[in-house]
Amino acid sequence: MNDYTADEMMSVAAARALRDGSSCFVGIGLPSTAANLARRTHAPNLTLVYESGCLGAKPSRLPLSIGDGELADTADAVVSVPEVFNYWLQPGRIDVGFLGAAQLDRFGNINTTVIGTNYADPKVRLPGAGGAPEIAASCGEVFIVLRQSPRAFVERVDFITSFGHGSGRGDRERLGLPGAGPTLVVTDLGLLRPDPETSELTLTELHPGVELDQVRAATGWKLKVSESLATTPAPTEDELRILRELKKASEP
User: Domains of the chain by range and CATH?
Assistant: First the structure.
């Protein structure tokens, strides 16, 4: 039996994907947890950028929101939100962007706008875009963190809030989008990466204890599986200790 949770496996897997010396546009929640874990383990020179304008933040605990004072107190610099987008994000100065989603399709397109095909009268109106479309368009690459289920992993998103790979390889280039788009999807079941020829999301790793049939059942399309399907290494004792210390420091 695993001595860690699915969310801990997701956080560790996402953290491992971050490279030392790179810059990362961070959102609150699992992305922030993963980025701060990476900075405390293998990537001490990872630069964290938060949408509120905090550059190079080094929080001692997990921030409660992008407006948490801990981010400004520990940042190398604090700039305006327009400067974050106009100077840092849009010109391609951010290496990695982290995004979540309500819906995700086989080409990494993200919906956080509406559930239902009628925009004016949807089944559910979601929080919306925020800065996600700019992150998806302009970061060097995008990591998506999302719990996997047929409700979230759909054949076709109801609304494209943040552009992934469109309908396949070449769509980003035709639209003039500078970033590589989604290069990694981290779920509670495994890791998916775009096929180099088609850009269709392909299962490349299963988390320990997860069966392939579980992942197929949690996917709303016929899932493509890598011929060299691997097993994600389980979290180490150090990774779990540091992750839990981060979370404990954030408790009231």
Answer: 6-249 (3.40.1080.10)
Give the confidence band of 28 by pLDDT, cuts at 50, 70, 90: confident
Closest C-alpha to 144, from 107, 175, 170, 114: 107
- Candidates 51, 134, 200, 239; catalytic one: 51
Strand partners, 103: 111
DSSP codes, 16-42 = HTSPTT-EEEE-TTHHHHHHHHHHHTT
For 190, the 3-state DSSP assignment is strand
* pTM score, whole prediction: 0.94
Q: Residue 14's closest CA among 156, 140, 192, 151?
A: 192
Is 51 a residue of the active site? yes
* Half-sphere exposure for 203 (CA within 13 Å, toward CB): 27
Q: Of 203, 172, 173, which is closest to residue 187 (Cα–Cα)? A: 203
pLDDT digits (tens, 9 = 90+) for 69-79: 999 999 999 99
What one-letter code names the amino acid at 251? Answer: E
- The token duo for 104 is 């995700």
In whole numbers, what is the pLDDT of the chain averaged over residues? Answer: 95
